[in-house]
Design brief:
alpha/beta, 12 helices, 14 strands, binds flavin mononucleotide, binds benzoyl-formic acid, oxidoreductase
Length: 346
């Protein structure tokens, strides 16, 4: 049907999902100003092509922290995939394996990380962690992710408390249905709730560095001063993210925050970005402004809700095709040839 664009998938997903579940996936915090800003800011940037450069053979692949991706688009960690499709994160991982990219498995997944890995043997998996106040339990989760073969630990640092999502409050959505749970939080014969850690600090990041030999990615760095601190604390990569507008409403769009973070990092580690990426041209804009790759959150959920594994495959395939098309039109043969000179206000 309307499955020719990422936005078309949202309409399809909305028609299929329970309204409260659609609102959970789609919504943001507060007035949703940041949610809207992420997409709007991409629309305000233009791409200035070069011409007559004979770019026939295209190169879209990137290597991030030793993980290979056939395109500079990762799957952002999002919770509760089984609300969108019975196979949930298994289906997502299979589509990610077929697209040869990287899935950041949410700690709040509804399929255990071991089962996600088993369902998609070829998939490159990274694991997203919310540091739990109980550090011994946090360590158990980290060990599970390591043993399942995850190649990086993505620590979300923008959520000392959960954002105030007014759609969820209105819908009284705060629990998963009976038959689902956060499988990564099983502890003996119970399942612990996801708990945020208001006391989260750089000390926790240092502790994680001792706890694991996996590269640590800090997700939710937006201030250049924090980007510099991330380097001091041995982060292997930074993800510029406002959590898709779901945490602090009123934050600027991530694409507008990116240049200052890139400048602060000075090429020391890769800088990733998520928030509002809906087109191949958005990917090129982010890379031109210094991102090593981007991640997509909601579009993957829309694909999953619309058509399961096939829907996610289609979403990732559309992005890949749009990136290639935009690259040729920009006169570039490779995603490594993009630079800030090609971005202007629209
Ligand atoms: C439904 C939903 C669930 C999410 N769950 C998580 C999560 O468990 N952990 C996390 O670090 N980020 C989570 N995020 C944030 C995403 O990783 C990402 O930052 C955001 O979705 C990117 O914006 P986009 O949806 O506009 O692509 C979630 C986002 C959504 C929409
Ligand atoms: O919904 C989210 O954005 C999110 O990050 C989250 C946090 C805790 C549990 C599940 C999802």
């Amino acid at each position: 049907m309307s499955q020719r664009t990422l936005r078309g998938f949202e309409a399809e997903a909305r028609a299929r999902l329970e309204p409260a579940h659609y609102d959970y996936f789609a919504g943001g915090a507060g007035d949703e100003a940041t949610l809207r800003a992420n997409e709007a800011a991409f629309a305000r940037l233009g791409l200035v092509p070069r011409v007559l450069r004979g770019a026939a053979k295209l190169q879209t692949g990137v290597t991030l922290l030793g993980s290979r991706a056939a395109m500079p688009v990762l799957v952002a960690p999002t919770a509760f995939h089984r609300l969108a499709d019975p196979e949930g994160e298994r289906a997502t991982a299979r589509a990610v394996a077929a697209a040869e990219t990287i899935m950041i498995v949410s700690m709040a997944a509804t399929v255990a990380v071991e089962d996600v890995a088993a369902a998609a043997p070829g998939a490159e998996l990274w694991f997203q962690l919310y540091v739990q106040p109980d550090l011994a339990f946090t360590e158990k989760i980290v060990r599970r992710a390591e043993a399942a073969g995850c190649k990086a630990l993505v620590v979300t640092v923008d959520s000392p408390v959960l954002g105030r999502r007014e759609r969820d409050l209105r819908n009284a959505f705060h629990d998963l249905p009976e038959h689902l749970c956060c499988e990564n939080l099983r502890d003996g014969d119970r399942v612990r709730p996801v708990v945020m850690t208001p006391e989260l600090s750089w000390e926790h990041i240092d502790r994680l560095g001792v706890m694991t030999s996996l590269p640590i990615v800090l997700k939710g760095i937006t201030h250049p001063a924090d980007a510099r601190l991330a380097l001091d604390h041995h982060a292997s990569a930074i993800m510029v993210s406002n959590h898709g507008g779901r945490q602090l409403d009123g934050m600027p769009a991530t694409i507008d925050l990116l240049p200052d973070v890139v400048a602060a990092v000075g090429g020391a580690v890769p800088v990733l970005l998520d928030g509002g990426v809906r087109r191949g041209t958005d990917v090129l804009k982010a890379l031109a402004l210094g991102a090593a790759a981007v991640a997509v959150g909601r579009p993957v959920i829309w694909g999953l809700a619309a058509d399961g594994e096939r829907g996610v495959s289609r979403v990732l395939g559309l992005l890949r095709a749009e990136i290639e098309h935009a690259l040729v039109l920009c006169g570039r043969a490779s995603v490594h040839e993009l630079d800030v000179s090609m971005v202007r206000p629209c």
